[in-house]
């Protein structure tokens, strides 16, 4: 029986400094986040003690002390909405709180964009005259470096990981046609003839399965770090997605994946008879073909298009919904909306991809770039087109081409504003966020699965949160509100 698909997004943002193109990105990222924290939140550090990024779902482990040691010295804080805001190597990163549905995860991802906008504004008073920090929600710096937009989904630990790999790979290879962010050109060796591609990340994947996230990136990441009870839960760490500005693309990306994972748990994707002969090559082949006409070879010698793979998965998802209602992916109404959008999007991609220029990022960008190219009679390798590509991802509303592209929206801006500060009510993020709001001065550190309180006496008190569906509004709101002190809160939790 499939379990609730608690999910969230981690976004590493691109960063530059107007007036100082050679500025140190780690320093600049630290200035950016410190500026926001100083204005909007108290500083609560991140607890690295229980983190284990070297654990592999295939049953072994690697020691990774150097990365953890470096990260402890970078800016790293937790927000009252339950999110994590920090410097990840050379990038500012916003990791959304745990969310109960794709729509809620979309909301908190958009709240992250607003956090970074406010951070840019706050950072101006710390920058020298003539310099300004600019943030981009993209995945490549065009110098051979890629940074991620990772998704996380809660899964049942009992599902064999080999089954996840087998059934998820063809979906991930082809999912980009609904959630790719689009890219002018290519950074992959030997791909000089690629004018425009669907995904920003496809160039940078080299393996089918593996633990790495920065080198030899795999289609299926094996990091086994559940941030929850490891005997019950798995956190599927997805590194293959693009960073989306389109709300529809993000919703489809999260929702379709959550449904597919539920089908894997319930054994309903066993009917998908698609195994690609060369998934890494297929990933790039799909990305390099905005016409969606190219074919992929399966291990049994059949030829199939990316659209056909997606239709096969969708048909099973629709059958799943009609039979079971899919109670693991938000409300019935949300799942119905998701399936309707997914079906309509595939139909339009089949008939005329450009009809989705107000819905999908890659189509919106292609429309903008192609229009400019044709109006000015430019070649695809003209730097102006690369500049348009980058400007699409500028999160400053007055500069962003995504803002001007007329993309369809799903969210109310007032709800996004609230989500910057208020945590989701349906997951343990509620306990984390509300404790930070009320007892922040007494929290020594935090992470996804615990809070460490300082009562003023030794030792510090760690409160574990090993079930993402505990610590919700229903579970703890009354206790937090009625506790006049940290001691009362801890006594109440003990009782």
Automatic annotation (TrEMBL):
The active site is at 88 (proton acceptor). One of its GO terms (molecular function) is ATP binding. It comes from the Bacteria. Keywords: Proteasome. InterPro entries: Pup_deamidase (IPR022366), Pup_ligase/deamidase (IPR004347). GO terms for biological process: modification-dependent protein catabolic process; proteasomal protein catabolic process; protein pupylation. This is Proteasome accessory factor A. It comes from Ferrithrix thermotolerans DSM 19514.
């Amino acid at each position: 029986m499939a379990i609730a698909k608690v999910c969230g997004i981690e976004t590493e943002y691109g960063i530059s400094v107007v007036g100082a193109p050679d500025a140190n990105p780690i320093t600049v990222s630290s200035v950016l986040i410190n500026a926001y924290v100083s204005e909007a939140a108290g500083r609560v550090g991140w607890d690295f003690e229980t983190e284990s990024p070297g654990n592999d779902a295939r049953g072994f482990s690697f020691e990774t002390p150097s990365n953890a040691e470096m990260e402890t010295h970078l800016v790293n804080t937790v927000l009252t909405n339950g999110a994590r805001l920090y410097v990840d190597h050379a990038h500012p990163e916003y990791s959304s709180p745990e969310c109960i549905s794709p729509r809620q995860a979309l909301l908190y991802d958009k709240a992250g964009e607003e956090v970074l906008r406010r951070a840019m504004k706050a950072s101006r008073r710390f920058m020298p005259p003539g310099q300004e920090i600019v943030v981009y929600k993209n995945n490549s710096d065009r110098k051979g470096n890629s940074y991620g937009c990772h998704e996380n989904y809660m899964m049942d630990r009992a599902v064999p990981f080999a089954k996840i790999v087998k059934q998820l790979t063809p979906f991930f290879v082809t999912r980009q046609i609904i959630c790719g962010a689009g890219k002018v050109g290519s950074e992959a060796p030997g791909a000089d003839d690629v004018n425009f591609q669907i995904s920003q990340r496809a160039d940078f994947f080299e393996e089918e399965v593996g633990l790495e996230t920065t080198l030899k990136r795999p289609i299926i990441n094996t990091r086994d770090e559940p941030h929850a009870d490891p005997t019950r839960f798995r956190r599927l760490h997805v590194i293959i997605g693009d960073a989306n500005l389109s709300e529809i693309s993000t919703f489809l990306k999260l929702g379709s994946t959550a449904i597919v994972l539920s089908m894997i748990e319930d054994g309903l994707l066993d009917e998908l008879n698609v195994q690609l002969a060369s998934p890494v090559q297929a990933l790039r082949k799909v990305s390099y073909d905005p016409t969606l006409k190219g074919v992929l070879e399966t291990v049994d010698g059949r030829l199939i298009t990316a659209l056909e793979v997606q239709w096969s998965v969708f048909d099973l998802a629709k059958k799943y919904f009609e039979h079971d209602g899919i109670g693991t992916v938000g409300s019935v109404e949300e799942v119905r909306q998701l399936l309707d959008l997914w079906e309509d999007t595939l139909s339009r991609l089949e008939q005329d991809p450009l009809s989705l220029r107000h819905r999908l990022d890659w189509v919106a960008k292609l429309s903008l770039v192609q229009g400019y190219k044709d109006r000015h009679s430019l070649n695809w390798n003209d730097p102006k087109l690369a500049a348009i590509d980058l400007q699409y991802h500028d999160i400053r509303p007055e500069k962003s081409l995504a803002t001007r592209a007329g993309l369809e929206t799903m969210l109310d801006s007032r709800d996004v504003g609230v989500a910057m500060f208020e945590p989701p009510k349906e997951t343990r993020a509620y306990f984390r966020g509300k404790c930070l709001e009320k007892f922040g001065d007494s929290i020594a550190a935090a992470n996804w699965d615990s809070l460490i309180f300082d009562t003023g006496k030794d030792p510090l008190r760690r409160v574990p949160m090993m079930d993402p569906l505990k610590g919700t509004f229903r579970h703890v709101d009354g206790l937090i509100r009625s506790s006049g002190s940290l001691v009362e809160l801890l006594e109440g939790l003990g009782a």
